[in-house]
């Protein structure tokens, strides 16, 4: 539990006009060969937060970082035209903040980052810039928003 260095925020890459339940998520992740849904927590548009994996078990959500991170996914991340967008509802923002505050108690040293912040630093300047993102997930600047929780 002391090895947790990051809370990695993801989006489910679901269009803003569609729903994606944790059951669908679980099924899709199993289809990709995971034991079960790869995230530890899933936050629905209405703010419901579902625990999908115990935090003492590694997730399957960030290649190379699963042993040292907790994965948190929110339902959304694409606009109605399937373009990357911060589609978090006020309820999701509340729920995410509450969840991070709870997790912070258990893992005081962990940093909040977005999945895209784990992209490869191609020009080695110590900063992951937008042209280096392997994907847009989670479609907002999680580090900027939650670094001072
Ligand atoms: Zn992601």
From TrEMBL:
Pfam families xref list: Amidase_2
InterPro entries per the UniProt record, alphabetical: Amidase/PGRP_sf, Amidase_domain, EF_Hand_1_Ca_BS, EF_hand_dom, PGRP
EF-hand domain residues: 120-143
GO biological process: peptidoglycan catabolic process
GO function terms (MF aspect): calcium ion binding; N-acetylmuramoyl-L-alanine amidase activity
Gene3D superfamilies per record: Peptidoglycan recognition protein-like
PANTHER family, alphabetized: PEPTIDOGLYCAN RECOGNITION PROTEIN (PTHR11022), PEPTIDOGLYCAN-RECOGNITION PROTEIN LC-RELATED (PTHR11022:SF41)
Protein name per the record: N-acetylmuramoyl-L-alanine amidase
Lineage: Bacteria, Pseudomonadati, Bacteroidota, Bacteroidia, Bacteroidales
